[in-house]
Input
Amino acid sequence: DTAVSQTPKYLVTQMGNDKSIKCEQNLGHDTMYWYKQDSKKFLKIMFSYNNKELIINETVPNRFSPKSPDKAHLNLHINSLELGDSAVYFCASRTGTGIGHEQYFGPGTRLTVT
Amino acid sequence: QKEVEQNSGPLSVPEGAIASLNCTYSDRGSQSFFWYRQYSGKSPELIMFIYSNGDKEDGRFTAQLNKASQYVSLLIRDSQPSDSATYLCAVILRQGAQKLVFGQGTRLTINP
Output
């Protein structure tokens, strides 16, 4: 019974292609996130959705588009992939709002653009 | 100045000793502070959170928060080789914000 799951785990593709990463959480959480972790292990937020509504949209190229069909799912679509997009992408979720902010991460998707 | 700063290490500690990991943050209005552990090739795992000044203990782990000095630390007592990982400090920079900002992480190695 995985809490936050992502597919695929590994994704190898060529420059210029379009790809999607899917995320699902079965924790009943209201808020979901996408993070990017680069080769130096720096973890940076990209997007956040609360009950299907976009609430955080960091400075991310327009080629990245999140979609949340329902509060248990948050997908990430990337158009025209570039070499610099190679990284590990983590989905995370948390419940509610307020001072507590314990986030739970999925296993990650390692994207390699060649 | 980075919003959340950690010494990237590596930090080497002998088995059984106390490992001390430090983190500073830039926004004095920050309210919530978290420590995540990340093993190589794995996802970050929440191990401690602290909201009030002082110490918070959970097993071998103690989180310490000093809001006046904008400083949060993690102590690991009786360090074990299985504690070898990268430790990420994360902060919500101001109350009500939804965004968790991470430091660059400290790589900890426990030597048997």
Notes: Chain A has a mean pLDDT of 91. Chain A touches chain B through 23 residues (CB under 8 Å). The first strand of chain A starts at residue 4 and ends at 7. DSSP finds no helices and eleven strands in chain A.
